[in-house]
Amino acid sequence: MKKSVFVLAIICFMTLTAQADVAKYCMSYSDFVAGNWKSVDELTEGRTRQACQIKSGDHCVYFKTGDKLCDQILKKQVFAVMYGNQLFVNCRNLRYNDVGLETSRFVQAIRYDNNKLCLIAYKTNTLTALAEIGTSIAGCFVNNGWVRLGLFASSAGFSIANDSLSDLVCYLIDSEANAKGKTAITRINDEFMERLLGDDANLLDKYMAIKTKRNRQSAANVLPILMEKGLVASAM
Length: 236
Fold this sequence. Notes:
- This protein is of the alpha+beta class.
- Helix content is 28%, strand content 22%.
- Helix 1 (3-11) packs across helix 10 (219-229).
Protein backbone atom coordinates (compact mmCIF):
# COMPACT_ATOMS: atom_id res chain seq x y z
CA MET A 1 0.00 0.00 0.00
CA LYS A 2 1.12 3.54 -0.55
CA LYS A 3 2.80 5.32 2.33
CA SER A 4 0.15 8.03 2.46
CA VAL A 5 -2.57 5.41 2.95
CA PHE A 6 -0.73 3.96 5.94
CA VAL A 7 -0.26 7.35 7.50
CA LEU A 8 -3.78 8.59 7.00
CA ALA A 9 -5.20 5.33 8.32
CA ILE A 10 -3.78 5.90 11.77
CA ILE A 11 -4.14 9.65 12.12
CA CYS A 12 -7.20 10.33 10.04
CA PHE A 13 -9.97 12.63 11.15
CA MET A 14 -12.14 10.76 13.66
CA THR A 15 -15.82 11.46 14.25
CA LEU A 16 -16.77 10.99 17.89
CA THR A 17 -20.32 10.15 18.91
CA ALA A 18 -22.00 12.61 21.27
CA GLN A 19 -22.24 11.37 24.85
CA ALA A 20 -20.37 8.15 24.02
CA ASP A 21 -16.89 9.44 24.71
CA VAL A 22 -15.78 11.26 27.82
CA ALA A 23 -12.33 12.79 28.13
CA LYS A 24 -10.07 10.78 30.40
CA TYR A 25 -6.70 11.56 31.90
CA CYS A 26 -3.82 9.79 33.62
CA MET A 27 -1.20 11.38 35.85
CA SER A 28 1.92 9.42 34.90
CA TYR A 29 3.46 7.02 32.43
CA SER A 30 2.99 4.17 34.90
CA ASP A 31 -0.72 5.03 35.12
CA PHE A 32 -0.88 4.89 31.33
CA VAL A 33 0.76 1.45 31.31
CA ALA A 34 -1.60 0.21 34.02
CA GLY A 35 -4.65 1.67 32.30
CA ASN A 36 -5.46 3.92 35.25
CA TRP A 37 -7.63 6.50 33.50
CA LYS A 38 -10.05 8.84 35.23
CA SER A 39 -12.74 11.07 33.79
CA VAL A 40 -11.87 14.74 33.42
CA ASP A 41 -15.25 15.34 35.06
CA GLU A 42 -13.71 14.36 38.38
CA LEU A 43 -11.22 17.22 38.27
CA THR A 44 -13.93 19.87 38.39
CA GLU A 45 -15.58 18.30 41.47
CA GLY A 46 -18.83 20.09 40.73
CA ARG A 47 -17.28 23.56 40.66
CA THR A 48 -18.48 24.35 37.15
CA ARG A 49 -21.01 23.30 34.58
CA GLN A 50 -19.15 24.79 31.65
CA ALA A 51 -18.41 22.25 28.93
CA CYS A 52 -14.81 21.28 28.36
CA GLN A 53 -13.11 22.21 25.12
CA ILE A 54 -10.12 21.06 23.15
CA LYS A 55 -8.41 23.89 21.33
CA SER A 56 -5.50 24.62 19.07
CA GLY A 57 -3.32 27.56 19.85
CA ASP A 58 0.32 28.51 19.51
CA HIS A 59 0.75 25.49 17.24
CA CYS A 60 -0.26 22.95 19.88
CA VAL A 61 -3.27 21.46 21.66
CA TYR A 62 -4.68 22.33 25.03
CA PHE A 63 -7.78 21.63 27.09
CA LYS A 64 -10.13 24.06 28.82
CA THR A 65 -12.88 23.18 31.29
CA GLY A 66 -13.93 26.59 32.56
CA ASP A 67 -12.57 25.68 35.99
CA LYS A 68 -9.25 27.36 36.81
CA LEU A 69 -8.01 24.69 39.20
CA CYS A 70 -8.90 21.89 36.83
CA ASP A 71 -7.25 23.68 33.92
CA GLN A 72 -4.05 24.16 35.92
CA ILE A 73 -3.95 20.45 36.76
CA LEU A 74 -4.45 19.56 33.10
CA LYS A 75 -1.78 22.03 32.08
CA LYS A 76 0.91 21.27 34.65
CA GLN A 77 0.34 17.83 36.17
CA VAL A 78 -1.58 15.50 33.85
CA PHE A 79 0.59 13.17 31.77
CA ALA A 80 -1.89 12.28 29.04
CA VAL A 81 -5.47 12.84 27.93
CA MET A 82 -7.55 10.32 26.00
CA TYR A 83 -10.47 11.54 23.94
CA GLY A 84 -12.32 8.82 22.11
CA ASN A 85 -9.63 6.92 20.23
CA GLN A 86 -7.22 9.83 20.26
CA LEU A 87 -4.34 10.17 22.67
CA PHE A 88 -2.58 13.40 23.62
CA VAL A 89 0.56 13.65 25.75
CA ASN A 90 1.60 16.65 27.82
CA CYS A 91 5.02 17.86 26.69
CA ARG A 92 5.69 20.07 29.71
CA ASN A 93 7.98 17.60 31.47
CA LEU A 94 9.39 15.71 28.50
CA ARG A 95 13.13 15.97 27.85
CA TYR A 96 15.23 14.92 24.88
CA ASN A 97 18.91 14.99 25.81
CA ASP A 98 17.85 17.09 28.82
CA VAL A 99 16.23 19.67 26.54
CA GLY A 100 12.50 20.33 26.43
CA LEU A 101 10.37 20.31 23.31
CA GLU A 102 9.23 23.57 21.77
CA THR A 103 5.81 23.28 23.37
CA SER A 104 4.81 22.73 26.98
CA ARG A 105 1.29 21.73 25.96
CA PHE A 106 -0.14 18.57 24.34
CA VAL A 107 0.73 16.81 21.09
CA GLN A 108 -0.73 13.69 19.56
CA ALA A 109 0.68 10.26 20.37
CA ILE A 110 -0.04 6.65 19.47
CA ARG A 111 0.62 3.39 21.28
CA TYR A 112 3.91 1.76 20.36
CA ASP A 113 4.52 -1.94 21.01
CA ASN A 114 1.58 -2.16 23.41
CA ASN A 115 2.61 -0.07 26.42
CA LYS A 116 5.03 2.48 24.98
CA LEU A 117 4.16 5.77 23.34
CA CYS A 118 5.18 7.18 19.98
CA LEU A 119 4.97 10.95 20.15
CA ILE A 120 4.43 12.97 16.97
CA ALA A 121 6.02 16.36 17.50
CA TYR A 122 8.40 18.92 16.16
CA LYS A 123 12.10 18.88 16.83
CA THR A 124 13.73 20.42 19.86
CA ASN A 125 15.49 23.75 19.41
CA THR A 126 13.99 24.58 16.02
CA LEU A 127 11.39 27.05 14.80
CA THR A 128 9.36 24.48 12.89
CA ALA A 129 5.79 25.72 12.40
CA LEU A 130 3.00 23.38 13.42
CA ALA A 131 0.00 25.49 12.52
CA GLU A 132 -1.20 22.97 9.93
CA ILE A 133 -2.12 20.55 12.71
CA GLY A 134 -4.27 23.02 14.56
CA THR A 135 -6.38 23.85 11.54
CA SER A 136 -7.93 20.39 11.60
CA ILE A 137 -9.11 20.51 15.19
CA ALA A 138 -12.76 21.23 15.74
CA GLY A 139 -12.60 23.36 18.85
CA CYS A 140 -16.09 22.95 20.15
CA PHE A 141 -17.82 20.46 22.38
CA VAL A 142 -21.40 20.41 23.55
CA ASN A 143 -22.96 19.59 26.87
CA ASN A 144 -26.21 17.66 26.96
CA GLY A 145 -28.52 19.88 29.01
CA TRP A 146 -25.96 19.88 31.83
CA VAL A 147 -26.98 16.30 32.64
CA ARG A 148 -23.42 15.74 33.79
CA LEU A 149 -20.09 17.48 33.79
CA GLY A 150 -17.89 16.26 31.06
CA LEU A 151 -16.49 16.44 27.59
CA PHE A 152 -19.15 15.66 25.02
CA ALA A 153 -18.34 15.79 21.33
CA SER A 154 -20.71 16.17 18.45
CA SER A 155 -17.90 16.19 15.92
CA ALA A 156 -14.25 16.64 16.75
CA GLY A 157 -11.02 15.28 15.46
CA PHE A 158 -7.31 15.67 15.25
CA SER A 159 -5.82 15.22 11.81
CA ILE A 160 -2.24 15.57 10.68
CA ALA A 161 -1.99 15.96 6.95
CA ASN A 162 0.66 13.92 5.20
CA ASP A 163 2.43 17.09 4.08
CA SER A 164 2.65 18.28 7.68
CA LEU A 165 4.13 14.97 8.79
CA SER A 166 7.17 15.79 6.69
CA ASP A 167 7.92 18.60 9.13
CA LEU A 168 7.44 16.43 12.22
CA VAL A 169 9.50 13.74 13.91
CA CYS A 170 8.72 10.88 16.27
CA TYR A 171 9.87 10.35 19.84
CA LEU A 172 9.49 7.29 22.05
CA ILE A 173 8.34 7.33 25.67
CA ASP A 174 9.10 4.07 27.48
CA SER A 175 9.93 5.03 31.05
CA GLU A 176 8.60 6.82 34.10
CA ALA A 177 9.65 10.33 35.12
CA ASN A 178 12.82 10.77 37.17
CA ALA A 179 13.05 12.14 40.71
CA LYS A 180 12.71 15.68 39.33
CA GLY A 181 9.52 14.81 37.48
CA LYS A 182 11.13 14.89 34.04
CA THR A 183 10.58 12.11 31.50
CA ALA A 184 13.37 11.22 29.10
CA ILE A 185 12.26 10.61 25.52
CA THR A 186 14.12 8.92 22.67
CA ARG A 187 14.31 10.38 19.19
CA ILE A 188 13.34 7.86 16.51
CA ASN A 189 16.18 8.66 14.13
CA ASP A 190 18.53 6.75 11.82
CA GLU A 191 20.43 5.11 14.68
CA PHE A 192 17.19 3.99 16.33
CA MET A 193 15.77 2.59 13.10
CA GLU A 194 18.99 0.76 12.22
CA ARG A 195 18.89 -1.03 15.57
CA LEU A 196 15.18 -1.69 15.30
CA LEU A 197 15.36 -3.07 11.77
CA GLY A 198 18.63 -4.94 12.13
CA ASP A 199 16.79 -8.23 11.59
CA ASP A 200 14.68 -7.01 8.69
CA ALA A 201 16.84 -6.02 5.75
CA ASN A 202 13.88 -5.31 3.47
CA LEU A 203 12.27 -2.80 5.84
CA LEU A 204 15.63 -1.22 6.61
CA ASP A 205 16.29 -0.77 2.89
CA LYS A 206 12.83 0.72 2.51
CA TYR A 207 13.49 3.18 5.33
CA MET A 208 16.94 4.13 4.04
CA ALA A 209 15.66 4.57 0.48
CA ILE A 210 14.85 8.19 1.32
CA LYS A 211 18.16 9.87 0.61
CA THR A 212 17.67 13.16 2.44
CA LYS A 213 18.24 12.66 6.17
CA ARG A 214 15.60 15.21 7.16
CA ASN A 215 12.94 13.50 5.06
CA ARG A 216 14.09 10.03 6.03
CA GLN A 217 13.73 10.77 9.74
CA SER A 218 10.43 12.60 9.36
CA ALA A 219 7.22 11.17 10.77
CA ALA A 220 5.97 10.79 7.20
CA ASN A 221 8.62 8.12 6.59
CA VAL A 222 8.98 6.64 10.08
CA LEU A 223 5.31 5.95 10.85
CA PRO A 224 4.60 3.68 7.84
CA ILE A 225 7.72 1.64 8.66
CA LEU A 226 6.63 1.24 12.28
CA MET A 227 3.21 0.14 11.06
CA GLU A 228 4.69 -2.49 8.72
CA LYS A 229 6.84 -3.70 11.62
CA GLY A 230 3.69 -4.13 13.67
CA LEU A 231 4.75 -1.71 16.41
CA VAL A 232 1.95 0.78 15.87
CA ALA A 233 -1.52 -0.05 14.66
CA SER A 234 -2.57 0.81 11.12
CA ALA A 235 -6.22 1.07 12.24
CA MET A 236 -7.25 -0.77 9.06
